[in-house]
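Annotated sample (chain length 246).
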Amino acid sequence: MKKITYISLLMLGVLVQACSLEEDMTSRATREDSYNTADQCKAVLNSCYDNFNAFISTNFALMVEACTDLWHVNSNTPDAFCDISPAKPGCGMNLWTYCYRGVMRANECIECISNAPISDEDRLPLVAEARVIRALYYYYLTNTFNGVPYYTCMVKDDSDLERIGKLGRTPANDIRDSLYVDLGQNAIPVFEKYGLDIKTSEDPENRARYALGLMLMAKFAMWRGEWERALEPLGKLEAVYGTLDA
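Output written by the structure step:
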């Protein structure tokens, strides 16, 4: 009987301790302590890739590739209409939501990693990579919706979020021009400086760096009909990959 009473009291003590309202906050990461080392910065940057998996799906492939009646899909699962109006957002609403989540994360990485107490050799390529990722999200947004709200600042608090939520739509070509300049001035030279001007397949971490940045620059220029301007990034791509007839 004494043994049963002892065990009961022990279990009661465990339950009381487990139900304590005192919360241990020591394990919770904050923005201030998430960018103190190169590994921490890279870990946060990795999260910028997550949202691509959320919208690149069968419906997305239908929307961007099956643009004519030449492609027939014999399935009741995919949304073959891919309505993207506000009344019937379909696949488009997922793309809008997840792309802007990616933009928000990339903007934070650009600002916070730029101020991180790590070496330039670690910091600058990570910031340049975040710029490429941000440009890719806007590439999908402008290709799908044309003009969209455009911002490149970090969301620090609710007031920033409220202000950004009220932004109007910037013309797609203005966004593409801004991103072309940003990549050309702030990303591509960094990759070249630190020996990352290589094929994506040769990148040991297979990250969104030099080649993708050049491809996006060329796309942005060609969308605007600026063929001569597209030749600069295309020339650098040719230097890396060789000519198509090689």
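Annotation: The first helix runs from residue 2 to 18.
Annotation: The chain is about 60% helix and 0% strand.
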